[in-house]
Design goal:
alpha+beta, D-Maltodextrin-Binding Protein, domain 2, 405 residues, 18 helices, 12 strands
Length: 405
C-alpha cells in the first residue's frame, strides 16, 4: 500500500486553506509530485473562467521521508483541524475513506449541496460504504471519491505459459498450480504467493479481502465473525500458508512483495494496481493482472483504497459555495478522466465505458473487481474487534483454536 500512497498522497491528502483565494496544501511522501503546482492551478483557472468563478487555488506541498510517521501525522492533523470551530482556516479536506466515521461529525452533508446527477455518476456501493457517516440525525454524505485503487492478482505469465496452467479462479486452483510449478522449477528464490499479511494496516486489508472472497455467494455481504463462511476463510488462508508458503513469506512486508514483482520470482503476487511511475518499471514482462481468486468460482474479493474530498462545516456560506465548486471540479468527468488515464482507478462508473480512456486504463479488469472496504461491524466495535483480529492472526501463524470475544 505504501507504494500506492507514494503516488496518491501528492494529490489527495490535501487541505484547502482560504485567505481570499483557495489554498491547497498537498501532503506527499517524496519530492516528485505527480501533478505539479502550475498544472493544477492552471486547470482550475480555466474551469473557473468557464464557470464564472472569481477565485483561484494555490497549491503547496509538504514532504515527509517516513511513510508511517507522516501518515499518522496527517490523520491527527486533519482531526485536530476539523475540531477547530472558530479558528478553522481550512475549507476542504482530502482523507482516507476509512476515516469517514472519525471525520464525519465535522464535515458538511453534500447531499443537498452537490447535484444529484453529479453524485449518481459514482458507483453507488462506493458512495454508500465509503463516503457516508451516520449520526442521530441520519445518514450524511461527507465526501465524494477523489481516487481509488484495488488489490488484484499478478500472475507470472511466463511460468503459467511454460507449464500450460491457467490463471486461477479459486484458491484451490492456486494451491494446485503452485505445487506443480514449485516442484518443477526447484528454485529457492521462487515463491508461490505472498499473502501480504504483515502487522501493518496492509495486513488488515489483506485479511478483510480474503474473508470477503470466501463469502457464500456473489451478493452476500461481509461475513460476521461467527458465520461458517468466515471460519472457512481462515481455514483456507491457513491452508495456503501451510501448503505453498510459510510464516516468513506471509508476514513479509511490501518491500518484499515489490521485489518479487520486479524480479519475477513469484508465481502469484497479491498487490495494488499500480500507475506511474511504477508502470514504467519492469513488471509487465512477467505478470498479467486479474481479479483475486475466491473460495468458489465467480466469487472474488478486493480491498478498496479510496481518498475522498470533503468540506468542513465550520466556514461561512460564501466559503461553502467556493469549496463546493472546487469539489465539483475535482470530481468532474473531465478531471476524473485525466486521473483515470494516468493510472488512477476512479469511482466514476461511466469512465469504464469511455473508449478513449479504456485504451489506456484497465477497464475490463476494473469492471470485474468485487471490492470491500473495512467492514462496518469492525468500524463500530473497535475494542472487541482489535482482540478478535489479534486472535485471527494467531490462528494463521500458530496452532490456535478460534475463540471470539
Amino acid at each position: 500500500m505504501k507504494y500506492i500512497i507514494l503516488k496518491i498522497f501528492i494529490i489527495l491528502n490535501s487541505v484547502i486553506q482560504c485567505f481570499g483565494d483557495v489554498r491547497l496544501l498537498s501532503f506527499t511522501l517524496d519530492n516528485s509530485p505527480l501533478f505539479n503546482k502550475e498544472e493544477m492551478e492552471n486547470e482550475f483557472t480555466e474551469y473557473a473562467k468557464k464557470n464564472n468563478l472569481n477565485f483561484k487555488i494555490d497549491l503547496e506541498t509538504l514532504s515527509y521521508e517516513k511513510p508511517s510517521d507522516s501518515y499518522s501525522f496527517f490523520k491527527l492533523f486533519v482531526e485536530q483541524s476539523l475540531k477547530k470551530h472558530n479558528n478553522n482556516t481550512r475549507d476542504i479536506y482530502f482523507y482516507d475513506s476509512k476515516y469517514s466515521n472519525l471525520y464525519g461529525p465535522y464535515l458538511l452533508n453534500l447531499l443537498d449541496k452537490i447535484p444529484k446527477e453529479h453524485i449518481e455518476k459514482y458507483d453507488s456501493k462506493i458512495i454508500n460504504e465509503e463516503c457516508t457517516f451516520e449520526d442521530k440525525h441520519g445518514e450524511k454524505l461527507v465526501g465524494l471519491p477523489m481516487s481509488t485503487s484495488y488489490e488484484v492478482l499478478y500472475s507470472n505469465k511466463i511460468l503459467l505459459s511454460k507449464y500450460k496452467k491457467p490463471i486461477p479462479k479459486t484458491w484451490d486452483e492456486l494451491i494446485e498450480i503452485c505445487k506443480h510449478i514449485m516442484k518443477e522449477e526447484d528454485d529457492s528464490e521462487l515463491i508461490c504467493y505472498n499473502g501480504l499479511l504483515d502487522d501493518s494496516d496492509q495486513g488488515l486489508l489483506s485479511l478483510y479481502e480474503f474473508i470477503y472472497s470466501c463469502r457464500d455467494s456473489y451478493n452476500s455481504t461481509f461475513p460476521n465473525l461467527q458465520d461458517e463462511s468466515f471460519i472457512n476463510s481462515i481455514k483456507m488462508l491457513r491452508r495456503i500458508k501451510d501448503e505453498v508458503a510459510s510464516n516468513g513469506i506471509f508476514s513479509s512486508n511490501e518491500n518484499f512483495t515489490f521485489s518479487k514483482l520486479l524480479n519475477g520470482k513469484a508465481i502469484f503476487v497479491k498487490y495494488w494496481i499500480v500507475g506511474e511511475p511504477f508502470l514504467s518499471m519492469p513488471i509487465s514482462p512477467f505478470y498479467e493482472l486479474s481479479i483475486l481468486p475466491g473460495l468458489k468460482e465467480g466469487i472474488s474479493g478486493s480491498t478498496i483504497l479510496e481518498y475522498n474530498i470533503g468540506i468542513t462545516q465550520h466556514i461561512n456560506e460564501q466559503k461553502h459555495k467556493e469549496a463546493i465548486e472546487v469539489v465539483k471540479f475535482i470530481t468532474s468527468r473531465e478531471y476524473q478522466k485525466k486521473l483515470f488515464m494516468s493510472g488512477f482507478a476512479s469511482g466514476m462508473t461511466e469512465l469504464m465505458d469511455d473508449e478513449e480512456a479504456c485504451k489506456v486504463a484497465k477497464c475490463d479488469l476494473l469492471r470485474r473487481i468485487q471490492f470491500t472496504g473495512e467492514p462496518h461491524f469492525i468500524k463500530n466495535n473497535l475494542e472487541n474487534t482489535e482482540k478478535n483480529i489479534k486472535n485471527i492472526f494467531m490462528i494463521i501463524y500458530m496452532m490456535n483454536k478460534i475463540v471470539y470475544q
